[in-house]
């Protein structure tokens, strides 16, 4: 895999409205019927994220996006936040799995909604899971890809937001430590969804040691190429202190469960490549929620970016060649 170019910011905040503080944490789906790329993204009302909902931007070329509509208004679902959408189709219905919370006093949980049209309107189904295990802390977030195991079985990858529970503060580590979990859904119908959460900490072996680039991993994307499966986690070295060094990784395995990875590498080196992604950046770059889209022999990687000098989350695009005879 060889980097062709960093396209930079492809989705920015609006001057006003639900996404005036952030336009970010998105998933891109190609709609063959409409022949459009659909970008479902998270919009925040301000940089403090007082409220957050899910909007839609559309593009004919996957590069130039035009904001179209609000898809999920968090208030309609009784939430303060609706973020990190993942969109997929099962048996004629379209589903959105997303993270959200009802107030600032509660951690994020995972929810699901459905529609008979990919554009909506989406109807709330239920809460899928809330933080339960020790490693999950008090809040969980979602990666931007779904893995279709069969006609009605889906894998999604989620992560803890922070390990800062009381016993972590007492017994350590005292810095943020983020890890990735796996959730399997069996969807018989919108009213009959089985939820299986893998116990313990199924992907903790992907984390590196303290101080390494993959010390913390979160909100991964996924794609498959032939018989190989690839996980693209956002990564951070929180133990070095603020401003954190952040990256996007690339994990290769023969299975979407990633129990025996053959490669764990850096794909985007935030500190080194930040000026290529945001040319006028003033501080360190923040990276999050990578979403890969396969196009012929190229990987179009959409991901969330922020200049820590202004705290405004946006979306960027980098394009990679997958041809083995290049580079």
CATH class (first level) name: Mainly Beta
Biggest sheet strand line-up: 1-20-19-18
**CATH superfamily annotation:** Glycosyl hydrolase domain, family 43
Q: In total, how many beta strands?
A: 20
SSE-based structural type: mainly beta
Number of domains: 1
Detail the poorly predicted runs: none
Large-scale geometry: globular
Order of helices and strands: EEEEEEEEEEEHEEEEEEHEEE
| Beginning-to-end CA distance, first to last residue | 9 Å
Integer average pLDDT? 94
- Count of helical segments? 2
If classified by CATH, what would the architecture be? 5 Propeller
Q: Radius of gyration over alpha carbons? A: 18 Å
Summed up:
By secondary structure, the chain is mostly beta strands. The chain has helices spanning 166-171, 270-277, and strands spanning 2-11, 22-31, 36-44, 52-59, 66-72, 81-90, 93-101, 109-115, 123-129, 140-148, 153-160, 180-189, 192-197, 216-225, 228-237, 245-253, 263-269, 285-295, 298-307, 312-321.
Q: What are the defining features of this structure?
A:
327 residues; mainly beta; Tachylectin-2, Chain A; four-stranded antiparallel sheet
Describe the structure.
It is a single chain. The protein has a single domain, classed as Glycosyl hydrolase domain, family 43 (Tachylectin-2, Chain A). The chain has a 4-stranded antiparallel beta sheet with strand order 1-20-19-18. It has helices spanning 166-171, 270-277; strands at residues 2-11, 22-31, 36-44, 52-59, 66-72, 81-90, 93-101, 109-115, 123-129, 140-148, 153-160, 180-189, 192-197, 216-225, 228-237, 245-253, 263-269, 285-295, 298-307, 312-321. With 327 residues, the chain is mainly beta.
């Amino acid at each position: 895999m060889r980097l062709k170019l960093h396209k930079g910011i492809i989705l920015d905040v609006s001057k006003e409205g639900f996404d005036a503080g952030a336009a970010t944490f998105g998933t891109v789906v190609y709609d063959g019927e409409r022949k459009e790329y659909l970008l479902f993204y998270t919009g925040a009302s301000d940089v403090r994220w007082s409220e957050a909902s899910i909007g839609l931007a559309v593009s004919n070329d996957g590069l130039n996006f035009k904001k179209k509509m609000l898809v999920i208004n968090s208030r309609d679902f009784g939430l303060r936040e609706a973020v990190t959408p993942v969109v997929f189709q099962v048996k004629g219905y379209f589903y959105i799995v997303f993270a959200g919370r009802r107030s600032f006093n509660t951690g994020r949980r995972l929810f699901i909604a459905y529609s008979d049209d990919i554009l909506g309107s989406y109807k709330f189904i239920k809460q899928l899971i809330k933080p339960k295990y020790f490693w999950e802390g008090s809040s969980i977030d979602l990666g931007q890809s779904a893995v279709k195991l069969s006609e009605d079985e889906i894998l999604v990858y989620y992560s803890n937001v922070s390990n800062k529970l009381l016993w972590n503060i007492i017994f350590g580590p005292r810095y943020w430590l983020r890890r990735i979990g796996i959730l399997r859904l069996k969807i018989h119908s919108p009213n009959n969804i089985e939820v299986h959460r893998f116990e313990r900490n199924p992907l903790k072996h992907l984390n590196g040691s303290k101080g390494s680039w993959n010390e913390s991993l979160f909100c991964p994307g996924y794609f498959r190429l032939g018989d190989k499966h690839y996980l693209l986690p956002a990564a951070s070295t929180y133990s070095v202190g603020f401003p954190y060094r952040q990256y996007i990784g690339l994990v290769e395995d023969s299975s979407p469960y990633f129990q025996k990875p053959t490669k764990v590498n850096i794909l985007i080196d935030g500190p080194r490549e930040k000026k290529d992604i945001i040319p006028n950046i003033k501080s360190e770059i923040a990276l999050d929620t990578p979403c890969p889209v396969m196009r012929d022999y190229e990987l179009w990687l959409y991901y969330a970016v922020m200049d820590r000098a202004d705290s405004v989350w946006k979306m960027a695009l980098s394009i990679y060649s997958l041809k083995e005879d290049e580079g």
